[in-house]
Design a protein that fits this description.
Helices cover about 60% and strands about 5% of the residues. By secondary structure, it is mainly alpha-helical.
């Protein structure tokens, strides 16, 4: 959800991931289904602009992740646009964030308070 504090809008991490996944799916659908009808693959300026824009927005929404770099670079190889790399990158970032969250929660061990040696 969105919260407004001190004139700034804060978006929850869940909403950020949802927006990033929707953006990645739309970008991949455009590159797989629509752009090949009008332009020539890797030489397409529209395809390049879309990749740069999607990479920038995903980095803004989710922060920089190494998964975005191969997704961007591999798109320059002709024919690889038929693989939904942006969607796979966002899904991998989501999977890693869930694994880190679970590890953090599981790694948290409640320890009893230390006794004051002067009161023993």
């Amino acid at each position: 959800m969105f919260t407004l504090a001190d004139g700034t809008i804060t978006i929850s991490p869940r909403s950020r991931f949802r927006a990033a996944l929707i953006l990645a799916i739309v970008a991949d659908v455009l590159q797989i289904a629509v752009f090949p009808l009008f332009v020539e693959g890797a030489e397409s300026p529209a395809d390049d602009v879309l990749d740069v824009g999607v990479g920038a927005v995903l980095a803004y929404l989710l922060g920089w992740h190494w998964e975005f770099l191969p997704s961007f670079l591999v798109k320059l190889v002709p024919g690889v646009d038929l693989v939904p790399l942006w969607t796979m990158a966002v899904a991998n970032v989501y999977r890693k964030s869930k694994r880190i969250a679970v590890t953090t929660v599981e790694g948290h061990v409640e320890r009893p308070a230390l006794r004051d040696p002067r009161n023993s």
